[in-house]
UniProtKB/TrEMBL annotation:
Alphabetical list of InterPro entries matching this protein: KAP_P-loop (IPR011646), P-loop_NTPase (IPR027417)
One Pfam assignment: KAP_NTPase
Domain KAP NTPase: residue ranges: 30-67
Taxonomy of the source species: Bacteria, Pseudomonadati, Pseudomonadota, Magnetococcia, Magnetococcales
Protein name (database record): KAP NTPase domain-containing protein
Taxonomy, superkingdom: Bacteria
Source organism per UniProt: Magnetococcus massalia (strain MO-1)
Length: 72
């Protein structure tokens, strides 16, 4: 028997809509740091494989889009 976990889907318009791990607060804090900075920023996320770095970035980009904040 083989078990598979369905892929997690991030809502592009509301990135933290399905946030089961409570990461929205961290995303909001990171957004506020970026908005208050007078200089351009480089932000790095450190974590082991499979800890959700890419998923967090996708969710955070949805938050930025929702707030009409330019990002790339």
């Amino acid at each position: 028997m083989r078990l598979t976990i369905p892929a997690f889907e991030v809502d592009e318009d509301d990135g933290f809509k399905n946030d089961l791990l409570g990461r929205k607060e961290f995303g909001e804090s990171l957004k506020n740091i970026a908005l208050r900075s007078d200089d351009e920023l480089v932000i790095g996320l450190d974590g082991a494989w499979g800890e959700g770095k890419t998923t967090f970035i996708k969710m955070w980009m949805g938050l930025l889009k929702q707030d009409d904040i330019p990002h790339h």
